């Protein structure tokens, strides 16, 4: 069985599994595993190595008394650069987490983009830490040459405040107040978002985003495939102030990194590239000057509020291809993307 679909860049046939008439011939995935184990082809170089949540974790906690949930809450995550790891939905990265790719969504009603899963910290959930979204990892090969992920996103405004308030009133002997309990999925008014990944090579990935409108009325969904570099430059380390570059060119994003080389994200149709920097919005959080005039939450503020918070030069360290999909009741739309390394790093570059 071969998947035959046309992706940006001319790839028309991405073979992940193949029916074999002879059991003596290894299937393609076993062949990829053998190549990877022998060091011939690094099929594991890119994979689902990105966290679902980096906010509220011990890794990012610099508080005096180890209060990680309070020190880095969910409300900070869209505006505050992580130091040690990143997070995202349907996310992939390289094995050094030099680049990160994930999907962001907006239903036109939420106060923020849906860039990461929402949940309660240990001091907010009546049974401790408690995630409040619904998603599934549906399939993956051992080398991640094929992966499938699914998420159900409400069409009504996500009830962030309601989930926090009602769970705070419940004790240990009470059941948890879940997203489905709010009635937000009544009448099936939600988006079923599926992402399929298929590798054409260890560093060439085809991505199919399928958006299905489960509701009984036509609706619009903003879809933002997002590419960014992990922030390694803002921490005052000797020799660590080198900043990579991401540029929006037409309907694609082109990145340059001294370790990774050149990476390209391109999509079909005519998406709008939006660029900002993966740097903290210190003005929003603490009333202090920000390192960048277009910080980490710039794309969020631009899409949700129409603010002038993305780079007019289409340059930065975080970028998204902005699609607005109008989908009829019971219908679906698809976006085809290609994420590939188009040039290696300069010879002799040290991996950091």
UniProtKB/TrEMBL annotation:
Gene Ontology molecular function: Glc3Man9GlcNAc2 oligosaccharide glucosidase activity
GO biological processes: oligosaccharide metabolic process
Transmembrane segments: none
Protein name per the record: Glucosidase
Lineage: Bacteria, Bacillati, Actinomycetota, Actinomycetes, Micromonosporales
């Amino acid at each position: 069985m071969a998947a035959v679909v046309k992706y940006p860049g001319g790839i028309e046939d991405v073979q992940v599994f193949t029916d074999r008439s002879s059991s003596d011939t290894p299937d393609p995935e076993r062949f990829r595993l053998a190549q990877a184990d022998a060091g011939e082809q690094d099929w594991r170089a890119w994979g689902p190595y990105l966290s679902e949540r980096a906010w509220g974790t011990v890794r990012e906690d610099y508080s005096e008394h180890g209060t990680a949930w309070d020190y880095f809450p969910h409300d900070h995550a869209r505006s505050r650069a992580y130091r040690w790891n990143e997070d995202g939905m349907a996310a992939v990265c390289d094995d050094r987490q030099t680049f990160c790719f994930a999907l962001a969504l907006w239903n036109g009603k939420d106060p923020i983009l849906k860039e990461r899963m929402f949940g309660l910290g240990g001091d907010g959930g009546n049974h401790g830490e408690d995630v409040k979204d619904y998603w599934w990892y549906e399939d993956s090969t051992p080398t991640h040459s094929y992966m499938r992920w699914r998420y159900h996103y409400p069409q009504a405004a996500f009830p962030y405040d309601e989930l926090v308030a009602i769970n705070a009133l419940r004790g240990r002997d009470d059941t948890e107040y879940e997203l489905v309990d709010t009635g937000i999925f009544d009448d099936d008014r939600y988006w079923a978002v599926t992402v399929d990944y298929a590798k054409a090579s260890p560093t060439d990935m085809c991505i199919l985003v399928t958006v299905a409108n489960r509701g009984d009325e036509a609706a619009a969904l903003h879809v933002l495939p997002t590419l960014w570099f992990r922030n390694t430059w803002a921490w005052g380390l000797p020799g660590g102030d080198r900043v990579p570059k991401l540029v929006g060119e037409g309907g694609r994003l082109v990145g340059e990194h001294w370790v990774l080389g050149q990476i390209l994200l391109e999509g079909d149709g005519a998406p709008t590239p939006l660029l900002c920097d993966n740097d903290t919005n210190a003005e929003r959080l603490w009333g202090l000057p920000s390192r960048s005039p277009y910080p980490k939450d710039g794309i969020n503020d631009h899409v949700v509020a129409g603010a002038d918070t993305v780079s007019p030069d289409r340059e930065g360290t975080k970028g998204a291809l902005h699609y607005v999909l109008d989908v009829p009741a019971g219908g679906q739309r698809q976006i085809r993307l290609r994420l590939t390394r188009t040039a290696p790093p300069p010879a002799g570059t040290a991996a950091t």
